[in-house]
Amino acid sequence: MLEIRHLKTLVALRETGSLVDAAERVHLTQSALSHQLKDLESRLGGELFVRKSRPVRFTPAGKRLLALADDVLGRLEDAEREVHKLLHGEAGRLNMAIECHSCFNWLMPTIERYRNHWPAVELDFSGGFTFEPLPALVQGDIDLVVTADPQLIRGVEYVPLFAYEMQFALGREHPLAERPWIEPEDLLEQTLITYPVERSRLDVFKQFLEPAGVEPASVRTAELTLMMVQLVASGRGVSALPNWVLAEYVDQALITVRSAGPRGVWPILYAAVREAQLDAPFMQDFLRLAREHCLKHLTGVRRVSS
């Protein structure tokens, strides 16, 4: 008989792409997980995924069960959420600040879905570009900060949402497009286009240029991501942005991208929350929905263990 644990295992296999990582996700040994899947396939009379494929490729039967898993597990989560509301109340406040210009792309659909789950929670947000959001979090003025720059502050917890690759956006005819990747020294004669924020908040300086002691020829700022991409496409400079932001412009053939060094630079995006509020059901549900939306819809991001 098909069981909930089977559906959770298949979803874990889809999301992680390997038996080893899926086993860790569902708290089983790889041997136990393999046995569970073989037993399920034996009951159903056929294979659900292609062995020795990476990432894992599912058969039509496996895809049908994954569709069932998305439906059934989603319904179970909804029911659990409703029971939580009945038992513990559903009111609260969730004022957010965002230190990431590009994060509005995924934050808005997450908020819309969240409103349907928690209509009595007061929601508001602002860009944390003109004030210090982490001190405001400690003081209770806001309740959550989306940041890639965690700081050790007493009473604040950082919940990882996902990891992303910082990539360089280049014009399609740019000389650096001929390189397999970008080294810090490659920017010595380049104009670097960034958002108008402090360097301490920009991955390209924190994790790439400053450790190498390199300064670009000049720095130009732009408020909007699309403006930055258009400047890059027209040969006015290069820019460093998250891979999931650049993916749509690559698909449109506006730009090309290269990694920062042979291994790339992979920052982690966090939700900073006060310890006292972290376990509140409405807060936990927002964190779950945000992570779920991003891992499902953003190109190239990776899951990070809490």
From TrEMBL:
GO BP, sorted A to Z: methionine biosynthetic process
Coiled-coil segments: none
Record carries keyword S-adenosyl-L-methionine: no
Keywords: Amino-acid biosynthesis, Cytoplasm, DNA-binding, Methionine biosynthesis, Transcription, Transcription regulation
Pfam name, any one: HTH_1
Molecular-function GO terms, alphabetical: DNA binding; DNA-binding transcription factor activity
Listed GO CC annotations: cytoplasm; protein-DNA complex
Domain HTH lysR-type: 2-59
UniProt entry tagged with the keyword Hydrolase: no
CDD domains on file: PBP2_MetR (cd08441)
Alphabetical list of InterPro entries matching this protein: LysR_HTH_N (IPR000847), LysR_subst-bd (IPR005119), MetR_PBP2 (IPR037406), WH-like_DNA-bd_sf (IPR036388), WH_DNA-bd_sf (IPR036390)
Cellular localisation: Cytoplasm
Superkingdom per UniProt: Bacteria
Homology family: Belongs to the LysR transcriptional regulatory family.
Protein name: HTH-type transcriptional regulator MetR
Organism in which the protein naturally occurs: Marinimicrobium koreense
